[in-house]
Amino acid sequence: MKQNSARTYPPLWRLLRYAKPYRVQVWAAVVCSILRTLLDLAPPYLIGVAIDVVVEREASLLARLGIQDPLTQLLVLSILTITVWGLESLSQFTADKLWQNLAQTLQHELRVDTYNHLQELDLAYFEDHSTGTLLSILNDDINQLERFLNFGAKFLIDFFTRVSAIGITFMLLAPGVAWLAMVPIPFILWGTFAFQSRLAPRYDAVRDQAGLISDRLANNLSGIATIKSFTAEAYESDRVYAESEAYRRSNGQAIAISVAFQPLLRVFILSGFVITLYFGGREVLQGQLSVGIYGFMVFIVQNLLWPFTELSEIMDEYQRAMASVRRVMGLLDTPIAVPHGGQSLPLGMVRGEVQFNDITFAYNGRNNILNHLSLHVPAGSTIGIVGATGSGKSTLIKLLLRFYDVQNGCILIDGINIRELHLSDLRQYIGWVSQDVFLFHGTVAENIRYGSFDATRDQIIQAAKLAEAHEFIEQLPQGYDTIVGERGQKLSGGQRQRLAIARAILKDPPILILDEATSAVDNETEAAIQRSLVKITQNRTTIAIAHRLSTIRHADCIYVMEHEQFVESGTHEQLLVKNGTYAKLWRVQSGIL
Q1: Residue 398 is inside which H or E element, if any?
Q2: If we measure between CA atoms, which residue out of 40, 45, 30, 48 comes closest to residue 85?
Q3: If one looks up domain 11-332 in CATH, what number appears?
Q4: Of the candidates 363, 441, 353, which has an alpha carbon nearest to the alpha carbon of residue 400?
Q5: Which of 90, 230, 274, 308 has the most CB atoms around its CB within 10 Å?
Q6: Interval 230-276: pLDDT, tens
């Protein structure tokens, strides 16, 4: 249900287009809402007929319809009143249920579609947009839309139905007075839309500011340990205060315009009521208007004009909702920079040969980080990549996973350009253990099983043993059922890294990537992991990025990166003989100066 459009359409049109699969429910809800409003207007009409019966008796409207006896006329009116009230209650129940179900369904569909589209976007998008802003769109803006569908849409339909029905009735029953009663309406409408045109940009600013607050709070909660360690609580409190104050001011500017319109509306409504009261009464005294019609008009004129007092609130809710729709649809319209390929290669057929052919890559607005670089990794081999921070080592991995696409050249797996492979298949071939390990809030077992959701308990334990994690897991309070906390905060850095290695082992991919996979473990654990890697890397293509050269000492080939290129390559022994960059790094890390 994704909506992609190169043109800019009004947000209401976009919303209606998105809701097209539910048009039957939408029309049913609209019809029930209109019916409820018309039935709600029936009692004033019946009161007017009752007055006509009491005053005119045998000459009343019902008498002209064939019901002569006044008591029978009143009985008929009573039955009609009961019927109208019953039908009104039924139509209101049906309309409310339809609107609420529709609101919940659209909210659910829109949130899921928006989140799914968000997952398809490349990493560059997330680097340019804060987590708080995206959370605000996925949560606050979509909830705002639900509130509008639950309440605002019904009010708008009620308003236009009520005004149209009463206006037409006035013109039919007393055209001489009706036009006078309606004189204030053009001024009210003009004022309403003039005010709303000033409100729309202010509500856009309110939604943007809400995203900034969400961003600030999300960052602070994630970094609470850092805040405490630097005793920066007061500083962060001031920053939250400043963001909240900016939100309050933005909202206050919108509210100031909104509430200023209410007193003006009341003046116009009062004028319409007084006009009806005076000129309608004068026509009754002159015998040009019946008492029943006059009573009906005086009673219902407020139903004609009073909804205009709520119009500003309805439009206020509408503008808030449309500001949210613009943000949600703007996210849905974001183009997917890394599209899926159409070719599928069964996992069991992947040998794991990797080739980087003359690739060039630069992050947005930056200089090339890789320049005409080529690399061939034979299937089943283990290579190591070392180099200074920022030399492009991790970028190679991100390109292989297609988090980004190369600007020039191509990357092949088993001779197939990875652009041609379906993304989910490509990433299924690769097990990635990153330096910045991310664990989900859940149990140890759930985090090891992540991505291999059908794995058995025995398989999870076996993967943990290979990653040298089983021993410490068994010592946790609930073992494999221990909750690790948000981002794994209840575990040490080394423990988190070993769980990440176990997760990659359980996936059993033909290509394994270790990006500083032992950076957060102690020497004893590193030695244990080194022993397990001998088993893990058998019959598997392995690319290991490391600052600790001991991690890649036994690789089939080691590549040294500098200045966007590989400047050295060979085995550990060959590179030591060359006495170049690698040899200098080895001497520093070995304590040989």
Answers
A1: helix 393-400
A2: 40
A3: 1.20.1560.10
A4: 353
A5: 308
A6: 778 888 888 888 888 888 888 887 777 767 666 777 777 777 778 77
Q: Work out whether the CA dihedral 194, 196, 202, 208 comes out positive or negative.
A: negative
Q: Is the dihedral of CA 36, 40, 45, 51 positive or negative?
A: positive
Summarize pLDDT for 29-79 with one digit per residue, the tens: 999 999 988 888 777 777 767 776 666 666 566 666 767 677 777 787 788
Look at residue 518 in the predicted model and tell me its pLDDT. Answer: 67
Distant-in-sequence, close-in-space partners of 481: CB < 8 Å, separation ≥ 6 = 443, 444, 445
Amino acid letter at 403? F
Give the Å distances, CA to CA, from 452 to 355, 368, 487, 506: 27, 36, 19, 7
CA torsion sign for 159, 163, 164, 165 is positive
Helices (H), 174-183: 175-181
Phi, psi of 61 (to 5 degrees): -60, -45
Tell me the residue length of the chain. 593
Residue 378 has a pLDDT of: 92
Report pLDDT for 135.
Answer: 82
* DSSP structure class, residue 365: T
Nearest by Cα to 469 from 458, 480, 477, 481: 480
Please determine, for residue 293, whether its predicted confidence score (pLDDT) is greater than 80.
no
Instruction: Give the SS3 label for residue 382.
Output: strand
Extract the tokens encoding 146: 């639900």
pLDDT attached to residue 368: 83
The label of the residue with tokens 């690739």 reads 359
Q: Which pLDDT value is given to residue 534? A: 74
Rounded mean pLDDT, 516-535: 70
CA-based nearest residue to 264, from 302, 312, 217: 312
Distance, CA of 575 to CA of 581 (rounded, Å): 9
Distance of CA 6 to the CA centre of its chain: 21
Quick one: tokens of 451? 């991505």
348 Cα distance to chain centroid: 36
Contact 545, 464 (CB under 8 A): no
- 179 vs 171: CA distance, rounded Å: 7
The residue ranges of every structural domain in the chain are 11-332, 347-590
- The residue among 287 and 164 whose pLDDT is bigger is 164
Q: What is the C-alpha to C-alpha distance for residues 211 and 199, in angstroms, rounded to an integer?
A: 19
Contacts of 117 (CB under 8 A, 6+ apart): 2, 331, 332, 334, 336
Q: What is the DSSP string of 436-491?
A: S----SSBHHHHHHTT-TT--HHHHHHHHHHTT-HHHHHTSTTGGG-B--GGGTTS
Residue 302 to residue 324: CA distance in whole angstroms:
33
Give pTM, 2 decimals.
0.72
Which pLDDT band holds residue 2 (cuts at 50, 70, 90)? very low
Q: Please give the pLDDT value at position 66.
A: 67
